[in-house]
């Protein structure tokens, strides 16, 4: 995430982030974070509206679902923890599950950092264009 977010901070700024995976596990907000708007939905953390990219912790094997408003209820399965997961691999059963989850929850953005791939899924044309322009992602359109 550190390679991508400095170029497209608007992917998370002003938005709420559900952390589906944090270092291959769950992220537990601190008491300070809870007092400043973070919440827990099931076993997943949801940020307050993000004021700075650094407000959302990332260490690797992270997967975020980003929303403009309220985060829909329901467990968001993490996919980055599978070695080599790519949402663009049509032969991958997990990729099919991933896209079903995206269709179900309709996040504005999904960011993932696993091994060896990092991915950004977005419904925002400007974020998409900037991500491609900085060379962080290949241009792929459905």
Radius of gyration: 14 Å
Major sheet size, sense and barrel closure: 6 strands, antiparallel
What is the overall number of helices? 3
User: Tally of extended strands?
Assistant: 6
Helix-strand makeup class: alpha+beta
Mean pLDDT: 90
Domain count, please report it: 1
- Beta-strand portion reads 15-25%
Element string (H = helix, E = strand): EHEEEHEEH
- Classify the helix fraction into a percent range: 10-25%
- In the sheet with the most strands, the strands line up as 2-3-1-4-5-6
The rounded distance between the terminal residues' Cα atoms is: 23 Å
Tell me the overall shape: globular
Distinctive features:
alpha+beta, 19% helix, globular, 3 helices, single chain
Could you explain how this protein is built, in words?
This protein is α+β, with helices and mostly antiparallel strands and 142 residues long. It has one domain (9-133). Helix content is 19%, strand content 20%. The chain is built from 3 helices and 6 strands. The chain has helices at 31-35, 93-105, 125-133, and strands at residues 16-21, 39-41, 44-46, 62-67, 109-113, 118-122. The protein has a 6-stranded antiparallel β-sheet, covered by helices on one side.
Summary of the model, kept short:
By secondary structure, the protein is of the alpha+beta class. It has helices spanning 31-35, 93-105, 125-133, and strands at 16-21, 39-41, 44-46, 62-67, 109-113, 118-122. Strands 2-3-1-4-5-6 form a 6-stranded antiparallel beta sheet, with helices on one face.
């Amino acid at each position: 995430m550190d390679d991508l977010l400095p170029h497209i901070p608007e992917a998370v700024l002003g938005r709420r982030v559900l952390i589906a995976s944090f270092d291959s596990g769950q992220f537990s907000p601190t008491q300070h974070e809870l007092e400043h708007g973070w919440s827990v939905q099931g076993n997943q953390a949801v940020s307050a509206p993000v004021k700075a990219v650094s407000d959302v912790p990332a260490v690797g094997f992270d997967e975020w679902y980003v929303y403009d408003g309220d985060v829909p209820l329901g467990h968001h399965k993490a996919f980055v923890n599978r070695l080599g997961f790519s949402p663009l691999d049509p032969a991958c059963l997990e990729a099919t599950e991933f896209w079903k989850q995206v269709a179900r929850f309709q996040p504005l953005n999904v960011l993932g950092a696993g091994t060896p791939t990092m991915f950004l899924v977005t419904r925002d044309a400007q974020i998409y264009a900037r991500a491609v322009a900085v060379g962080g992602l290949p241009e792929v359109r459905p």
